[in-house]
UniProtKB/TrEMBL annotation:
It holds the Pfam family DUF2292. It comes from Anatilimnocola aggregata. This is DUF2292 domain-containing protein. Residues 1-28 are annotated as: Disordered. Residues 1-16 have a biased composition (Polar residues).
Length: 70
């Protein structure tokens, strides 16, 4: 019986871990969506270490109208 209980406990812990990992991935995706939102010209760089998003950089370029050269 103890072995069966141990397996059940391990299953519960694995489900909690998987649920937490899913939540973190969804949060990462939300941050990426936010970085992309409204971007017309520029880049979004996503830094990943050991399979984990650790940094998101957004660089936006804004075009300004040039004066007519005379």
């Amino acid at each position: 019986m103890a072995n069966g209980e141990t397996q059940q406990q391990a299953t519960v812990v694995n489900r909690q871990h998987n649920s937490h990992a899913r939540d973190e991935r969804e949060q990462d995706m939300q941050h990426i969506r936010e970085a992309l939102r409204g971007l017309r010209y520029g880049t979004v760089n996503i830094i990943i270490q050991d399979g984990v998003v650790v940094q998101i950089d957004r660089t936006e370029k804004r075009r300004v109208r040039q004066r007519d050269a005379k």
